[in-house]
Every structure is written in structure tokens, then in C-alpha cells.
Amino acid sequence: MTSYQNLHEGWAVTGGDVDSVAATVPGCVHTDLLAAGLIDDPYLDENEKKLAWIGRTAWVYETAFQHQRTGGRTDLVCAGLDTVATVILNGVELGRTANMHRGYRFDARPALRDGENQLRIRFDSAYSYAEAQRERLGDRPNAYPEPFQFIRKMACNFGWDWGPTLVTAGIWQDIGLQTWSVARLAEVRPQVTVADGAGTVEVRVRLERETPGPVTLAATVAGRRTEIQTAGDEAVLTVTVPDPELWWPIGYGNQPRYPLAVTLTGADGQALDSWSRQVGFRSVRVDTTPDAEGSAFTLHVNDVPVFVRGVNWIPDDVFANRVTRDRLATRFGQALDANVNFLRVWGGGRYESEDFYDLADSLGLMVGQDFLFACAAYPEEEPFATEVAAEARENVVRLASHPSLMLWTGNNENIWGHEDWDWKPDLDGRSWGAGYYFDVLPGIVAEADPSRPYWPGSPYSGRDDKHPNDPAYGTMHIWDVWNTDDYTKYREYRPRFVAEFGYQAPPAYATLRRAISDEPLAHDSPGMRAHQKADNGDGKLRRGLDAHLPAPRDFDDWHYLTQLNQARALSLGIEHFRSLRPHCMGAIMWQLNDCWPVTSWSAIDGDGRRKPLWYALRRSFAPRLLTVQPRDGRPAVVAVNDSAEPWQLSMTVSRRTLAGVVAAEVTIGVTVAPGSATTLPLPAEVGVAADPAAEVLVAAAADHRAWWFFAEDKDIAWPPAKFDAAFEAVGDDARLRITAHTILRDLTLQPDRLDPEAEADESGVTLLPGESATFIIRGGAALEPTALATRPVLRCVNDLT
Ligand code: BMA
User: How many A from CA of 582 to the centre of ligand 1?
Assistant: First the structure.
């Protein structure tokens, strides 16, 4: 049997002026230096700028461990080294690596001793390596002034438009010694398929042998076992499960999983190795059939078309070792609570972890994984050609068992960039990655994971003769909104599938206050500027505000309004895209999460707090959505039903004055079929305002309400806000009941301004006069009721006038 000795203890790191400080493994040099008190927290104020030297320094990790040799092979197994490493055991060089995204195994026997052993891993500067490759191969276009495409390392480590430049080094995943004899399972690759109700698990096994001879391989699923004997190095075991329960995405059914166990036994019956995973039976395909308007991009799971209500996922922390399973579970819970059903793992980060995929499997969250290429032209020369192929195959094999994984995508924005970002003259014929996206990667998926779809890029039209970002074909990204255009422009698009669209806002106030000590805090104070990485981000935020909302008078207004504008921008986009169902079958907003405290496109900030956008996602991504959309020059109600049951909808649509008085009203009863959107035009007396600045449209059904404002907030004559507030402590929590005496537009509560731990269950509530709303404030029992119900904690748009 194999045995494993982990080597996580006793490490120290040395480099530059730093002489041997304790190191955490798995971990990285930044967190080690931070723990040793040698650097300031890179996430606070402008500290990031003082730490550039770390990425330019070579770091040596060293430990001593005891080992007693036994018979057989002993390998040093490194699940992840970041990145340019030389591995030395007792003075003997075992190997060199330069790819963070692969695991490595070295035969340790030539160097291993009985008793005390010294293990030393030297990490050369990632910059030095990448710059040398760039020099050798010739520069290539890139969205950022850093050489990240010349090293197989997480791209966003070199900084991004939401992330700091903190170039890490270290042993970022498990490391240990594995001792084995006769043979071991070098690769286990399950393909789980289901056809006509019957499940098949085909397990392809590759063996590594120390000694030749027959061995027995067995695979067991749901009590069914297949066994074979082999003297070779490769084998296929097929187990059929006649009538498995299907695995479904969240909202479509349950997520049953079946244990799959693979065992390897020697000729004399001794157990040699074993491997196990939970598998799920489901089919997946992407329908890209051409039609009169272009070609679709529709995900079918178990032959049911699924509207993708997605979020883009970036690494949840710059320092991967901080992203624990618990933290992933919290983040996934936040995604599910916002009615998200799909996570796209963006190509500038990592191939996500076992914990990530195991949680996604168990929760029914679908995942799309990009291969790791983002926003740059990538060289296809050696050593990269070999590294990319090895990395891709390893990760495809590693993740193949996961039912949540729906789609592999070749890259983020590189095909688009090549077409549109003036790369061609600079490239002057040099390689840019096309060979990976159109040849190498699809070849690897077809060979190693044939049951899973592959798409060459995000975005990609699917056709050579169409622009890669053509709305009518395949997937698209929408970034003119935010960069140059108002968010109402989302409505000018009729996309088939939007894989990125987003709008910025600052983090929660408590997050800003933890990370930035500027006094006073201002949108352009030094700390705020250091935590805004987007090109002219502050200017774009302001441009967006000016188009819609009254001018902010101070930082508190700016903070409330920019957060509100972000929420409105995404709601408008999502509800428009959903209203186009089935023409459009996916909306993946940019971005769910952050990796540090920063003003960004995220719905959840770097401290894990939900921005107003999160609450807007929950509303706009609800499986059943009532929304008001412009159709033929006036508002119409659209009812979207993603559920499997018909929706019997009975509603009243009224045009009212701001005082709530009904000017015209219509009652509508309709059945919205499962998986469809129904547009309900309105008669002119309801849909056309007599005075756009003084009227609203409200569509109200039992559990649903949708609003339409005939004018921009800045042009509406909002009455000064009048309301009563009633506070009640309930255990550790509190309830704040607001009863409106005037219309209250986008009532938003920020209890974290009073206590960083406090959090409200709702945000962005609009009330007509006479209506009330109750906010439940987790951890709010001790808050001061008057402060809670007053600006800047409780806000509405009316209080700007
Ligand atoms: C797209 C993404 C990211 C970026 C985001 C915001 O380009 O793919 O690269 O962070 O837009 O600009």
C-alpha cells in the first residue's frame, strides 16, 4: 500500500535582506513576511506600493524532516510550486519547475537518507524569468504593463483592474513523500455519461510500475463492481448503473452523487493503491444551432435548456492559502442566495481547487472553467507549448469527475483582443495563442474529457467569418457600457449569451474604513485612489452618476449613489437579457467577488460584505421575474419563468402620481409557460405618462413587484422623505420597520457604518406612501435606533433633494 508523509512542518524562508523567518506551507512569501512582522499588510492604504521588491527577489524555503527508508519507491510529491523552482534534497537537485498550474513528482531515492533530511526549494524571481522569456521570444501585446503571459503563473498576481500587484512565491499546495511499491495509480480519468436513463462510468487508468507483472484493478459505483487483471500500463474499466438518479443544477432537481472507488491490488492480494471521488450522472451539451438571427449558445443539462444566471469568479484572495473551504462555502452560499446558478472561473486566475468543485457539485452550482489565458497575446514557442499542454491535460483529468463542471473555455478575451485591440501590427506574425485555443486545448478535451463541451474563447462567435464578439453568434462580453456608454445601452444589444458585463462601485463603508485610513475619506483621496485600479475608474463612476442621479454633495452621498447606480445598471442589464429568452440564454455578470478591499465590479466586497448590487442580483436573478421593459416606445411588462412549473400570474399594473394616487390601472391574468418569457403590452392610458417627472408605473402580483420610472431620478421632483421608524431588538438581531409617508426611492440601510459586524437583509426598497418595510439587521440588537434610521446609515434618493 502506498503511504504518505506530509512535509508541512518546520519550514523557514530566506531571501534578500530577510534572514530565515518561519514559513507556512502551503503558503506564500507575502503571508510569511506579514506573519513575521516584516512587512505592512499589503491590503491596507498604499502598502502594496512598498512591496514590489518581493516579486523581484529570489526566495529559499527550507525544512528538515525525519524519514526511515523502506522498500519500494519514494517520491517527493509537490501539488503546486509557485513558480520558478529548483528542488534540492540533501544537496541533490531533484528537478526544476516553472509552472504554478501543474503538480510535480520526483523520485526521491537518489537523495533520501535514513534519519534527518534537508529539503530546500529555491524560487527565482517570477519577474526575472518572465522578462527573460519576453526578451528571448519577443514582446507581445498585453492589456497591462506586466510580463504575465511569459510565465505559467496566475496572471492577476501581476495586478489587474481590480487587483493589486503582489507577485508571490512559495509552496502553494501540499507537499509530501509518497512511498509505494509494485505499481501505483498514476492517472485515473472517469468519464460519466448517461444515455436513455442508463449511467456509464468509464474509468481510464494509467499505472506507473516499479516491477512488472499482473495486477488487479477494480472500480465500484453504487455497489456495482468491475474488475480486470492487467500486466500492462493502461486499462479501461466500465461500470454501468442501470437507473441512476440524475444530478441537476440548482432549481432543476437534486444533486445525488455516487461514490466511485478504484483499487489496485497486487498478484498476492496486497492492496497497492486506491482512489475515490463522488460522481454525478448528468448529460451536458451546448446547442449552437444556426437560426434566422445567428446562432444560439444554449446550455442543455439532461436535455433541458438552462438559462444561465451567472457570475464571474476571480480568486477570492490574492493569497490562495487564505481561501479555505469554509470561505468558499460562504461565498457559494452568497451566490446561491442571490439566485445564481453558474460560476465562470475566469482565465486570469487558477484552475479551481478540489474544495471548490466538490462544493459546487454538492450545491448544484454549475461551473465553467477557463483555461488560464487572459487579455494578452501568449507565446506558443517552447517551453510554453510543452507547459501548456501538460498543465491543460493534468487539470482536465483532475476535474473530469465533477458533475458541476459544464464547460471548458479556451481563454478570456484573447481572440477578441487579437481582432480588435490593434495586436496584429505589434505581433508582426509572432504567435499569440491561436494554436492553443483552436488546436491544442480542444484536442486535449476531446481526448481526455470527451463528454464535456469546449468553446475556444470568452467571448467567441463560433465562426471564422463572424467577429468574435458578435452579439448574434455564440458568447459576447459587453464593456462599452462602463467604459464609454451609459448602462441603458445594454438594451441596444440582442445577445445570445453574455459572458461578461459589469459596472463598478466602492465596497461597503466598513470595508473601506478597515482598509483605508484617509482623513477625510474622499472619492479621490490617496487611499481611495490606491484601491481603484480601473483606467479612469473614478471618472467613469461619476459619468454614470451624472446621467441618472442628483449630484452627490459629499463622500456619503457619493458612496450611496455609486453603489446604487451599480445595482441599477446590473439589474437593467440582467432583466433585459432575461426578457429576451429564448433568444438570449445566459447572463454572467462581472464579477461576484473581490480578492482584496477595492472599488470594483464585484457584488461582494473584499471583506465578504454584500454591496447593494448583491440584493439587486437576488431580485433580478429570481427564477420568476416580473420586469418592465421598453417595447415599441412605451413600457411593457415581461414575466420570465425559469422554473419547471407554469406560473399563474395575476397582477395589477397602475400608473400613479408620486403621491401614490392611481391615474390609470389594468388587471392582467396570464399563464407563463415553464422556461419562457411572456411580454404583456400595456394600454396607452397606463403606459404613457401625463407628466413623466411626477409619475411611476407599478406592476404588482402576489410576491412580485416591478417599477418603471418615466424620468431619470435627477429630473424627478422627489418629495422630501417622510417616514416613521420602529426599532425592536430580537435576540442579537434587530428589526427596523419603516413606514413611508411619502414615496421613498431605493431605501438602503448600511448598519456596518455603526458596527462592522451588522448586516441588513434587504437593500434598495422602494415604498409608496402608506407602505412599510421591515429590515432585519443581523447583529443589530445593540445599535442606536436613531442613528440607524438617519442619514448616512439609512438612505433614500429623496434625501438628496
Ligand atoms: C474584462 C475581464 C477582466 C476585467 C474586466 C473589467 O476584461 O475579462 O479582464 O477585469 O473586464 O475590466
Answer: 27
